[in-house]
Amino acid sequence: MTATEPKPAVQGSEAQGTRTLTLIQAVTEALREELARDERVVVFGQDVGARGGVFLATAGLQAEFGERRVFDTPLSEASIVGAAVGMAVRGLRPVAEVQFADYMGPGFDQIVSQAAKIRYRSGGQFTAPLVIRTPSGGGVKGGHHHSQSPEAYYAHTPGLKVVMPSTPYDAKGLLKAAIRGHDPVIYFEPKRLYRAAKGEVPAHDYTVELGRGAVRREGRDLTLIGYGGVMPDVEKAAAALSKEGVEAEVIDLRSLVPWDRDLVLTSVEKTGRAVLVSEAPRTANFMGEVAYVIQEELFDALLAPVSQVAGFDTPYPYVQDKVYLPGANRIAAACVKVLNY
Amino acid sequence: MIQPFTPDPLSWVADDGQPIRELPARFTPEVLRGLHRDMVRAREFDRKLVTLLRQGRTTFYAQSRGMEATQVGLARSIRVGHDWVWPYYRDHALGLTMGVPLLDLVSQCLGTNSDPCRGRQMPHHFGAGRQNFVSISSSIASQVPPAAGNAMAQKYLGVDEITVCTFGDGATSEGDWHAGVNMAAVNGAPCLFVCENNQWAISTPLRGQMASETVHVKARAYGMPGYLVDGNDIVAVMEVLAHVVEELRRGSGPALVECLTYRVGSHSNADADAEKNYRTREEVALWTARDPITRVEGLLEHLGHPVSAEERAGLIAATHREVDEAVGQAEASGQPDWRIMFEDVYADLPVHLREQAAFLRAEQTGGRA
Ligand SMILES: Cc1ncc(C[n+]2csc(CCOP(=O)(O)OP(=O)(O)O)c2C)c(N)n1
């Protein structure tokens, strides 16, 4: 016996219209729809069942789908991630929650040795299509064990896909695409946007393709690139610059692996300037890769050095939460410097 | 009659082949001969691979001489292609007996085009889709949590399959081992954990690995039965596993079986001088005398169906021929080229890998293709 094949996704014609949702509501909705669509989908992690997860991303799902589909696990990231690998190999579509990205450490070997490698090492005989969802980033007074941005570790591991939405629309569409895809996906959720980010989300089924960025604002003077939790500040900085007559083009990467090089290069070729924003520590930050590709491909088109605004190379501080993060002012200042080069 | 948590290993046959308890009826001389054949084949494969290693035709090999009863007994206790196995790197006797083609195994060790895993891993880390024999990972104990998940999926799907997860004694010190065993237990998943306790983890003896008397007692703490078996006695291995596998299929939840055996050879080729460096000749001699193959030969003799010297020599020669042929076939298939490096990283080739592959193609062809 096998689990029944997934039902065809509900198409736009059946349920029209959009609603305003928060980012976390969009996550919940994606999970609910995928659980309903495909019996192979199971959702689990620490406290995700009756409680609905510490941030309530899975609230109500166990009541709706039962303990077989949505369940709590022991407090062990190695076994949450590792079990997800085994389930995926045996034919399920596991969506595991790691309570905080900071706690992926105990599951690290399972992610990099098992999830990321099994397709490759077996010559495609065994595959692990799984999703690991985890809240990441700072801005919630969480101190260094509830605020880190470890995406670069995973982006550095061939075999994994890495995404981080910043809008409710993307949160839902990317999560659905991740669940339906055939590769292991690390899905980072910027926790400070869980309730802060609100937006229109279609009621009908849709996905957002992994690997495609989005232009949030068009401009000609420079390109501002970010992803995840920094995006509202990036847009705020762009709005402030606009008042001064500077039009920044704003790109949300959405996916880090693979990332949308065409979108970035087309934009930077047009503007000649790039400012890259992320809140992860600066050294070996994922944006270093973006900067590298820009300079390699567009050296002649650049009017100024590519600039990075990042977190500091310190453990994430508790008291200085807000100073640590690259806010709109710091982003705008970097833009001004690049413009005046 | 088979009780968990016994202080002494469960045994059926003494070192010299005399039965200590009544021999179960299913162990007819034919069956015993078949098991003997499987064990000899595994041992000779081992011997030939060590030779290939010495000839520099492969670069790594982990022997399992002395552990054949445990691995062959396990292979013969499950439903191949129906049950799932998450093995570790010393499990070629298990794989061979489960029907992984010898050519595939040799090819994997040589990293040739005929390797189903396509030369992606170091030698002796094979996997076989048809046998549900999941490809081996070097990272000690990292197969344990996925095996738990595999068994959880089987329970979820309502199938009567079980999952087998094997590991050495050293692996039981890793966090992943405890995490995975606990995960299976909490979920009542049909996972059979088999410790191939060969008493050494490279140069670290059991007593440097753990302060508990045995591995199997740890099962109690996780809420599952634990069994201690004489891992050099194939009758004992198969009797205990028959009991445990039946329980698992009936929905009992996981179990831990510790097979007490011995790694007669070195850990790997990286550790050629085990005797000189960390083991005594006396210890190795003691365990060589407890050999699982001669034990079955003793039993067959006791039953009045001895394996003749010619028969044994015939079996050995046949395996050597089989390996030689496989080596010839594997080597003739050639080495995989650079192209396969980029395949199977993801389901589809993303653009950055497409570019990197194009770069390497240009480099490899001098810009010609
Ligand atoms: C996580 C990890 N740490 C260290 C090693 C190096 N290593 C390879 S084999 C081995 C010993 C394992 O011993 P055991 O589990 O008893 O199996 P055996 O080789 O004795 O069959 C070690 C330490 C490894 N492969 N993985």
Task: Describe the secondary-structure layout.
The complex is a heterodimer of chains A (about 350) and B (about 375).
Chain A: E1 18-22, H1 23-37, E2 41-45, H2 61-65, E3 70-72, H3 77-89, E4 93-97, H4 108-115, H5 118-121, E5 131-136, H6 151-155, E6 161-163, H7 168-180, E7 185-190, E8 198-202, E9 214-217, E10 222-226, H8 231-243, E11 248-252, E12 255-257, H9 261-271, E13 274-281, H10 286-298, E14 307-311, H11 321-324, H12 328-339
Parallel strand pairs in A: 2-3, 2-4, 4-5, 5-7, 6-7, 10-11, 10-13, 13-14
Antiparallel strand pairs in A: 1-8, 6-12, 9-11
Helix pairs in contact in A: 1-7, 3-4, 8-12, 9-10
Chain B: H1 29-54, H2 68-75, E1 84-86, H3 92-97, H4 102-110, H5 144-157, E2 163-168, H6 175-186, E3 191-197, E4 200-201, E5 204-205, H7 206-209, H8 218-222, E6 226-230, H9 234-249, E7 255-260, H10 274-277, H11 281-288, H12 292-302, H13 309-332, H14 351-364
Helix pairs in contact in B: 1-2, 1-12, 1-13, 2-9, 4-13, 5-6
Bound molecules: thiamine diphosphate.
Short description:
The complex is a heterodimer of chains A (341) and B (369). Chain A has 341 residues and is α/β, with parallel strands linked by helices.
Features:
heterodimer, A: 341 residues, alpha/beta, 7-stranded mixed β-sheet, 5-stranded mixed β-sheet, 12 helices, 14 strands, 34% helix, B: 369 residues, 5-stranded parallel β-sheet, two-stranded antiparallel ribbon, 44% helix, globular, binds thiamine diphosphate
